[in-house]
Structures are given as structure tokens and as C-alpha cells.
Write a structure and sequence with these properties.
Helix content: 55-70%
Radius of gyration: 22 Å
Pfam family, one: Far-17a_AIG1
Organism: Westerdykella ornata
Number of domains: 1
Distance between the termini: 32 Å
Largest sheet: none
Keywords: Membrane, Transmembrane, Transmembrane helix
Number of helices: 9
Main location: membrane
Structural class: mainly alpha
Number of strands: 0
Shape: elongated
Oligomer: single chain
Region (Disordered): 1-30
Length: 260
Amino acid sequence: MSETSERPEVERRRQKQRRQIQARERQRHPLQKFESPSKGFSGVVHVVGLWNFYVGFKYLADNPNFITTSFGWHLQYLTILGLSISTLCFSVGLLADMTGSYALFTAKNYLSLVAAPIEILIALLYWGFRAVDPALVVPPDLPLPPLSIDCAFHLFPALLLALDALLLSPPWPTTPTHPRAPLITLGLTTGFAVAYWIWLEVCYARNGWYPYPILELLTVGQRVGLFAGAAAGMGAVGMGLRVWYGWINGVERHISSKLE
């Protein structure tokens, strides 16, 4: 058989393989609770989330204070960094819902590996410290925000990101789950915590103060301990989400054969 006659057959096989790959990508993971990406429930969750994030950022714009004009702006706060990452995550998720793009859906799920643990940790730390003493998390020169705004910053993002991770996502951004998924999750969250600590120290060098009053009360060693604990906590939340996912949706076993 000549080389010329082989080419159409080779091309047909390639096209068949591409169609099989595309069909596999468009098949919802068997453990994923609800259809996503979709313009239904998934789209509604992402629209509601983006509206909540907009409310938070609008409050910052409408209520400027000394943080607004300082080095680092409000991005000195873990809350606002988390809100920014969550906004990016849900924006990509909504684009996936509107276009049906599984490349965007996968990107959203990777962003969620960082965004969801951050938001849940923020909620746990903020409401925990606030229950002890609000002055630990809110500078004395700033008033406490209204409860609805406080929840938009410190509660609703955690609930929305957890909802997305547990009900609108596969157990891992790619199938099958990466064999080192727990280590990857721990590495991402720990890396973020270390990067945030460095960022805070850069802001402190420029501003002369920390955004969180509790940091002013701690020695260098105690701050190291606090951030190490936060990194461990963020990693624990990330791994906890995987455990909760298994409780709600089941554990991935021999799933790959169902996707072929």
C-alpha cells in the first residue's frame, strides 16, 4: 500500500481519537453531584457568588479609609485576597457555564483548589477571633461593617466556594485523580500562606503597621508560629474538603473505566 493511500486512513483514525477525547471531556464525572458547566444551577451559583463579591468590593470603594491609601491597598487583608481569587474562580466558572468550555471548567477547578480552602479558613479564623475580641481582627480606628457586609466578606464566600467544590466539581480537576493529590493540595495552600506572609512583611516595611491588630501583639517567633499554623490549617481544610466530598458523593474507585 502506498504512502498516499495510507494518509486518509491515518487521518480518519486521528479524527476518531479526537472525537473520543472530546466526548470523554464532555461526560460529567460519575461522582459530580450536579451538571456543571451548565446554564442551570451551576450558572446560578456562579452569578450569585459574583454578585456577593461585587457587593464586598463596592463597599470598599464607597467607604475609603486609611487602608485605601496605604501601600498594598486592601489586598493586605487575607479576606480581600481571598475575595479576589474567588472572583477570578467564579468568573472563569461562569464563562465555562455560558460557553460549555471544559478547558475553562478545568481551570475553574484548579483555582478552586486554592480559593475554597482560603475562604473556609478565613471564615473560621475571622469569626473565631471576633468571638474572642473584635479588636483582634478589626483596627480600632475602623468601625465594624454592617452584618450583611461582614457576611459578604467572611461567610458567604466560604459557603459558595464549598458548594461549588462539593456539588459542582469532580473530585479532582483532571480524571483520574492525581495520585499525589493530597500533597499537591498541601503544597498549593502552604505556598500561598508563605507568599502571604512575605507580602505582609513587605507592606509592614512600607507602612509601619500590620493590617491585623493581633500581629502587632505577637513577637517574630509567635508570628512565625501563627503563619505556620495558618498554613497547616489551610492544608487541613483542603484535605478536609476531599474527605467531605467522599462523604457526600462517594469515593473514586475504578471510575476511569466508566469514562472510556
